[in-house]
Give the backbone structure.
Amino acid sequence: MRFQALTEVCERLSSTTKRNQMTDVAAEFLKALDDGEVEPAASMMLGRAFPKWDQRTLDVSWATISATIQRLTKTDWKEFSAAFRETGDVGSATQAVFEKNKIRRQSTLFENPLTILEVRRVLEAVAESTGQGARERKERLVETLFGRAQPLEAKYLVKIMLGEMRTGFHEGLMEAAVSKAFSIPLKTVQRAAMFVGDIGEVASVSKIQGAEAVAGLGFKVFRPIKPMLASTAENVDEPLKEYGGKTAFEYKLDGARIQIHKVHDKVMIFSRRLTDVTESLPEVTKQIQNELKAKEAILEGEVIAVGQDGSPLPFQHLMRRFRRVTEVEAMTSEIPVKLYLFDAMYLDGESLISLPYAERRKKLAEAAGSIPFTEQIVTGNSAEAKRFMRRAVDGGHEGLVAKRLDGP
């Protein structure tokens, strides 16, 4: 399939706000793809060079991309800036300067058209260019792509490389499109996407193996999982009423949510955005290795920065740890962190996500050793919940998280 076809689909998606129409357009396109094109196409339609779980990055700056565009189109920055002011979008501005200067790019007419798989292969080569001379290799590869691109293709190459698709077509709509394209129940698709951490992979399995294989997808340790999200309540009475009485209230810490994966002594830690942050948290890795009794696990927790007296520090201090890629050991002394666990999704070969929350917490307690949990009370009493809320805030925390005891 030509890359041009994918860009035309993206244009159609960006031209409507109707969810059903977007789903129909994407579903028809997915059905028309060859087996090996489904995951790359699904990822690119969502503005990703690679699957969501894939830790590879392009490491190509806008400066490199814009210099390549100016060189190929023989435009200057003033001309590009004018196009950007008119369109308000770097992809659209790129398309505009390509169209305006296409007469200068006649050599592209003699090139073979780009395909979806070719674009993926070049992006992989860009990501895998490391070491001495990597910057020059990346620049040559980027120029190869844009040198063969037609104006609309150039627009979406920029969007994919910068991760700024902005068509209004998001992951939830892609799940609906996969469901429709391959006649698989939406809940089955959503569950599978959570397990494997990427809707593109689910789309590929749907196309190649069908509904039964999608239903059979499970956790892959070291493959980060989409986190379960909360919604906001105005006060403690709201969840008490919605949950019909007894509710688990836990401190909402001013830290960073992390997902911990472990097999024997190997530990990987992922951020809420599914980025590998293992190297930033060596003491957490060591704590899991030493304390966690399970041989295999996928857990969720929160890390907070703490002061010398053990009191929580603002979130900004913790961010200094995540941004530091060198001298991490020195930072562990300067900004110590503390881990609190709050949920378990997988322990020693057993998926726990269908179990009630109270039972998951109990199983987590059996495996956690001396690793602390987020502080919790279980109550149906509004006054008690309010007192707990005040204690959390007075202790330097953000508030509370309310959880349904029988919630999966």
Q: What stands out?
A: The longest strand covers residues 337-347. The chain is about 50% helix and 15% strand. The CA atoms of residues 258 and 369 lie 18 Å apart. The mean pLDDT is 91.
